[in-house]
Write a structure and sequence with these properties.
By secondary structure, the chain is of the alpha+beta class. It has two domains: about 240 residues, Aminohydrolase, N-terminal nucleophile (Ntn) domain (Glutamine Phosphoribosylpyrophosphate, subunit 1, domain 1, 4-Layer Sandwich), CATH 3.60.20.10; about 180 residues, Rossmann fold, CATH 3.40.50. The protein is about 30% helix and about 25% strand. It contains 17 helices and 23 strands. The strands form six sheets. Strands 3-2-4-1-10-9-11 form a seven-stranded antiparallel sheet. The protein has a six-stranded antiparallel sheet with strand order 5-6-7-8-12-13, covered by helices on one side. The chain has a four-stranded parallel sheet with strand order 17-20-21-22, sandwiched between helices. α9 packs across α10, α9 runs antiparallel to α16 and α11 packs across α13. The N terminus is likely disordered. It binds adenosine monophosphate. The site of adenosine monophosphate (AMP) has 16 residues, from α13.
């Protein structure tokens, strides 16, 4: 029996998490601000921090961007050597303060705070099981289900309880948890969502991406392994490996779109992977043109790689309004289409009378490309060739990347030729799956489910 996590064309939680253990309590909340600010791309709906002030957990969270939520006042008010934080990207429906994180709960053995990135596929059935047992929930978060399970199993030993709970929950998760005395991180058995460890002269950092560690003045040490629990306290670092089968299946979409280019995830630098994807795109589909340009920002490294490989000039054919919010999460198709125009405009002077190659990282519903191809043509381009630095998205993600129902995915409803006609391009090419894997330069395992339907675990069946 599967949980109905796809009740509607609802978007899923993509989040960023940070944790710090330091002997510099005065600096902690400022450092948390820097870390969360560096992860803002992972979630713009809400932000929050929880700090251990002498054994007592204090927290502040609210809807909004990091700079609006973690104000100077909050930074001055919250101090203590141990903290965790969260940024959230969620559905419009569930974007309420109650659903913001970190989640702070009190139970018999004390208080804990939790922050989670990912999506559990069995959270609903676990929730009903707990509810049948009389448990009352205050939020819709999977995180609260996990908090309850950890608390119920704890019996004075939180780590043992986490280890047990990790074997029961299914799906994708990267957690940072804070108790009265320690910072704990754990990652699902496939390592679907990223989590890494860094060091500062005064302590340790856990973060979704290495760019947050750099922003916090730390040095990257390593990624947390699939199924690993890492415990940081006054005695240093301890690592516990899961007894369950663990196999690396890093999410390929982190490299395609989601992560920041200056992050290195599971040994692969995101910028390099995107640049290589562009070079491989050029090898697989070379087209003669006067100009290559990107759909900024996520298409930029691939467009640079493509231009570099074929020696075609690279330019800024599209200019992005840096204050625009993301169009992908607009609730209706009409708003999504309008949104593209407010976000991007064509540099007419550059594209006029030219044969151009426009490169983006991915096509999901086809909204962005259709609008852009038309705008570029209206601006006077002679020919518009489109190259995409990943294969068509053909399957929904159940592990925390925001992909809609299958029937909204243009890669499901149309062939590549039909997509070309729909977006009115002179030609269209998608990077092959082999090319995409090769672009990472790594033979570590990847979750490619959104591109080939090969899910690393059983998932609900929804169309
Ligand atoms: P679409 O317009 O639906 O085809 O979406 C493709 C555009 O959205 C591309 O420009 C991508 O960079 C971007 N994109 C791809 N995946 C996501 C995602 N999970 N969340 C937000 N934007 C995305």
């Amino acid at each position: 029996m599967y949980d109905n996590i796809f009740e509607e064309d609802k978007l899923h939680d993509e989040c960023g998490v940070v944790g710090i253990f330091t002997d510099n309590p005065e600096l902690t909340s400022q450092l948390m601000y820097y870390g969360l600010f560096a992860l803002q791309h992972r979630g713009q709906e809400s932000a929050g921090i929880a700090i251990n002030t002498g054994g007592k957990i204090e927290y502040y969270k609210n809807k909004g961007l990091v700079a609006d939520v973690i104000t100077n006042d909050v930074i001055e008010r919250l101090s203590g050597g141990l903290a965790i934080g969260h940024v959230r990207y969620s559905t419009a429906v569930s974007n309420t303060i109650e659903n913001a994180q970190p989640l702070v709960v009190k139970f018999k053995s004390g208080s804990i705070a939790l922050a989670h990135n990912g999506n559990l596929v069995n959270a609903d059935s676990l929730r009903s099981m707990l509810e049948n047992d009389g448990v009352i929930f205050q939020t819709l978060l999977d995180t609260e289900v996990v908090a309850n399970m950890i608390a119920r199993n704890a019996n004075g030993d939180i780590i043992k309880s986490i280890k047990n709970v990790m074997d029961i929950i299914k799906g994708a998760f990267a957690f940072v948890v804070m108790t009265g005395k320690e910072l704990i991180g754990f990652r699902d058995h496939f390592g679907l969502r990223p989590l890494c460890l860094g060091k500062r002269p005064d302590g340790y950092i856990l973060a979704s991406e290495s760019c947050a560690i750099s922003a916090m003045g730390g040095e990257f040490i390593r990624d947390i392994e699939p199924g690993e629990i890492i415990i940081i306290n006054e005695n240093g670092i301890e690592s516990i490996k899961s007894s369950k089968y663990a196999k690396q299946k890093s999410c390929i979409f982190e490299y395609v779109y989601f992560a920041r280019p200056d992050s290195t995830i599971d040994g692969i630098n995101v910028y390099e992977a995107r640049f290589n994807a562009g070079r491989l795109l050029a090898q697989e589909s070379p087209t003669k043109a006067d100009l290559v340009f990107a759909v900024p920002d996520s298409g930029t490294p691939a467009a640079m790689g493509y231009a570099h490989e074929l020696g075609i000039p690279f330019g800024l054919g599209l200019i992005k309004n840096r204050y625009a919010k993301r169009t992908f999460i607009e609730p209706t198709q009409e708003l999504r289409e309008e949104g593209v125009k407010t976000k991007l405009s064509v540099l007419k002077e550059l594209v006029k009378d030219k044969t151009v190659i426009m490169i983006d990282d991915s096509i999901v519903r086809g909204t962005t490309m259709r609008q852009l191809a038309e705008m570029v043509r209206k601006a006077g381009a002679k020919e518009v060739h489109i190259k995409i630095a990943s294969p068509p998205v053909t399957h929904s993600c159940f592990f925390g990347i925001d992909t809609p129902f299958r029937h909204y995915l243009i890669g499901v409803t149309k062939t590549v030729d039909e997509i070309k006609d729909y977006i009115k391009a002179d030609s269209l090419y998608f990077l092959s799956l082999e090319g995409l894997q090769k672009s990472t330069g790594s033979d570590r395992g990847f979750c490619l489910a959104c591109l080939n339907g090969d899910y690393p675990m059983e998932v609900p069946k929804f169309d």
